[in-house]
Amino acid sequence: MEFYIDDLRLPVPIQEVSVKTGADINTISLVNSGEVGLYGGEKLDTLSFSSFFPSRYRPFCQYNGFPQPETFINHIESAKREKKPIRFIMTGTDINKQFLVESFEKTYKINGLGDVYFSLSLTEYKEIEIPQIAPATNSSSTKKPTTTKRPTDTKKKKSSTTHIVKRGDTLWGLAKKYYGDGSQYMKIANANKDKVKNPNLIVDGWKLVIP
Predict the structure, then answer these.
(1) Per-residue pLDDT of the chain (211 residues; tens, 9 = 90+)
(2) Residues 6+ away with beta carbon under 8 Å from 107
(3) Are 116 and 178 within one domain?
(4) What residue spans carry the region label Disordered (predicted)?
(5) What is the CATH number of the domain that holds 44?
(6) Is 10 left (phi over 0), alpha (psi -120 to 50) or beta?
(7) How many structural domains are present in the chain?
């Protein structure tokens, strides 16, 4: 089993990693039922472990030629200071994700070896997905030009009728009959120009249009 902080492989195998998972449980009180719990979603995973950064190779180290302790320390403290996540990997398990450094404690032991002991607590990091909002467009460029509609004549047009001329009919009399006003006889004359050449003369049997 190997352990990595980003691309830095830890020289000494970690003996114990504490993993904590959980969920938010909201409680409410119901009449006649008492207190009940409601699932509110998963909490972020947390990890904690302790080990040390050796200053030189020893038989228990997993590989030789590893960086000095300050390289690991600077990397972790830089991520914490800049509020950037680090990736912690523990091969052989499903632990391979990004974490934020919650706390980092180090101890310099006066043993002449230069090793640095540490305790590291990590909290799972999740990116916040912010939906993109389309930029507002100039209303003047997108607004459709308004057109003024002419008011439509809602009055139903009167349908024309016809009249067969009989003896004694006159245009004045027909206007009086159909319009209630004999002085409008020229409306009938104009509508029948193909026949009526003289408004004072109409012939029996003519079929006149009464507009």
Answers:
(1) 899 999 999 999 999 999 998 887 777 877 777 787 777 778 898 999 999 999 999 999 999 999 999 999 999 999 999 999 999 999 999 899 999 999 999 998 877 788 999 999 999 998 877 777 777 666 555 566 565 566 555 455 567 899 999 988 999 999 999 999 988 999 999 999 998 988 888 888 899 999 9
(2) 116, 117, 118
(3) no
(4) 136-161
(5) 2.40.30
(6) beta
(7) 2
